[in-house]
Amino acid sequence: MRKSPMSTYTNFTVETDADGIALVTWDMPGKSTNVFTEAVMDELNAIVDAVVADGAVKGAVITSGKSSFSGGADLSMIKSMFSLYQQEKAANPDGAAQKLFDLVGRMTGLFRKIETSGKPWVSAINGTCMGGAFEMSLACHGRIASNAKSVKIALPEVKVGIFPGAGGTQRVSRLADAQSALQMMTTGQSLTAARARAMNLVHQVVEPDQLIPAAKQMIKDGLKPVAPWDEKGFKAPGGGIWTPAAAQLWPAAPAILRRETSGNYPAALAILKCVYEGLQVPFDTGLKIEQRYFTEILQTNEAFSMIRSLFISMQELAKGARRPTGVAKTELKKVGVVGAGFMGASIAYVTAAAGIPVTLIDRDIEAATKGKSVGEGLVKDSIGKGRLTQDEGAALLSRITPSADYADLKDADLVIEAVFEDREVKKAVIEAVEAVLPDGAIFASNTSTLPITGLAKNSKRPADFIGVHFFSPVEKMMLTEVILGKETGDKALAVALDYVAAIKKTPVVVNDTRGFFVNRCVFRYIHEAYDMLIEGVPPVMIENAAKMAGMPVGPLSLNDEVAIDLSQKILKATVADLGEAAVDAKHMALINKMVDEFDRRGRKNGKGFYDYPAKPAKKSLWPELKTFYPQKKAEEVDVEVLKQRFLVTIALEAARTIEEGIVTDPREADVGSILGFGFAPYTGGVLSYIDGMGVKAFVALCDRLSAAYGAHFKPTALLKDMAAQGETFYGRFDPYAKEKEAA
Ligand code: NAD
């Protein structure tokens, strides 16, 4: 083995063996995963040149020095390309577009250079291989993947509003059949190594320790340094688009996409266009087509906002953007969970899954043990799906200790209470826990409706008291809302954020208010549906319009999940606390009728706005609902307006939370809205939705809606002021203001 002269790179090492095969190992210093940056592209370009120039080198194997192969392109790089374009657009629109087009083509050109270098390249995929990294692999002449469980292969760009724009659409559609190719790219789904092999996207799947030898063997066996599409007479699998099979696929494809996305994701449609148009032309022309569509997509609000919220902001929040800097990181040695019911049981499970020992307390040991059994069920499922081994499952469960004795919390760093939503019950639990809790340990409440400041009045140490609000199902929902009471201190916030990071969820930190952030917005969504029902909009149109607006679940369906009697309870509590005028009497009448007259409580009792017949039959809207109010004819209802009403009422509520100082960072409102209740992800979240159309246009829309549908659509003072000043949320509440000042 010799280190060739070309081995002095920052992000790669290159070692050439006695057979003349260069092993190029991508291993970026100080990073947990490899990503494509400008510097990485420069170095890879130099390596390709060196491999070509060195007569002693027969071919190259590229792999990763990390446990994953690579996460793909650095999205901050893509975001900065977009920002550059925006800056230059005003002065020189054509020049700016050309510049963006050239930048976009850089990666495409580099990968094509590997493909046409004249020497064979093999990509040895040792772990997760995403986006641009898989596009690079597709440009190699051989692809070989390890069969390790950790290997996931995907082109997930569509999930952040872009698409595989470095040759991915052209190569995948020339290797796999068109239907699988479209499915993979328009959903961004992950493939196992075996599935990638079955789709013809990798050539071999081998044991992890055989990866490099097998990759080198491909070259020794005479791997031809020519891509199939560069061979004369190449035909795409299935014969391209002028075949009977293609005649079945292509007319249906845009319709299927529209059914799945309601036309809200321009990048997904661009994938279809790239493949359809690209398969009719020579490969290099196909690459140009892809480059043009990619340039176009990069200029959309959807791409900009999705990259910002779903990638950059989400990462920043997960890394503790809101964490107080003066407090040392807490390694949680033990967490207590009090209340082993629906929420507590799952909170204990996710905590144990993060490797933290948990004491799970309920009123008696039977109830606590029952709570642990929920974890047992989840572990069994994970073992069944191959996500955990038997040993890992057993170790996870061994970390959950059921108990009925508060004394077992004496060495906990953090206790989370998830007992009944009742002030008196919570008061008793707070007192019982604090009687044993060591100094400096933090008490967190998972309450969904009771303000934290009020609950903290029962605490002897309100500075160590905080809200940590989970969403159901806890093991699936990625968001956690962290709520600061008036007296909550920095240490409590730091510990809560360290805990949320340990269980790998994304936190949003909000100030105390009724409903916090997420539920305030969610109830606006549901209440707008009540208004529509009362106006006589057919229930099915309400549900469909919400989905067409980009919401994952219709509001009536969501209310069934949340429980209609819980809505009733919340409405009643609001009346008790704030008076009759605080709720809409018509809403109250509707919900009382559902619950008191018809016992329709939601999915939990099998009847809500929907009927829930025994499986496999599907749920369907309850026909009687249509008899509640005189029904409008479908043609009397403007679906576009229904869509706007849903998005605007939620966004307006989010704007109110900013105005009231509940949410202080626009990133949190955006990320919280997408992770918490699936707010139309293509918008980038509630505030990006407003910024995207411009505050002035949003205010005008609010004015129109309030004239027609009620005062709850009235734009607020803050919005009117921002409209007058031409401001955006990300400008006025700039999350990076402090860093900019410091710089
Ligand atoms: P649940 O009724 O399923 O569970 C409550 C558990 O607390 C029960 O096991 C009960 O035995 C136990 N408990 C009651 N009094 C106790 C005491 N004095 N000491 C010890 N244990 C006691 O309720 P849940 O749905 O899990 O809700 C728990 C909390 O989580 C509530 O504050 C609720 O508002 C909040 N929350 C619920 C959801 C949800 O979707 N259900 C979502 C977020 C937050």
UniProtKB/TrEMBL annotation:
Organism of origin: Rhizobium favelukesii
Name of encoding gene: fadJ
Top-rank taxon, per record: Bacteria
Keyword vocabulary terms for this entry: Fatty acid metabolism, Isomerase, Lipid degradation, Lipid metabolism, Lyase, Multifunctional enzyme, NAD, Oxidoreductase
Keyword Nucleus in record: no
Enzyme class: isomerase
Domain 3-hydroxyacyl-CoA dehydrogenase C-terminal, chain residue ranges per copy: 515-612
PANTHER family: TRIFUNCTIONAL ENZYME SUBUNIT ALPHA, TRIFUNCTIONAL ENZYME SUBUNIT ALPHA, MITOCHONDRIAL
Known EC number: 5.1.2.3
GO MF term set: 3-hydroxybutyryl-CoA epimerase activity; enoyl-CoA hydratase activity; long-chain (3S)-3-hydroxyacyl-CoA dehydrogenase (NAD+) activity; NAD+ binding
Name of this protein: 3-hydroxyacyl-CoA dehydrogenase / enoyl-CoA hydratase / 3-hydroxybutyryl-CoA epimerase
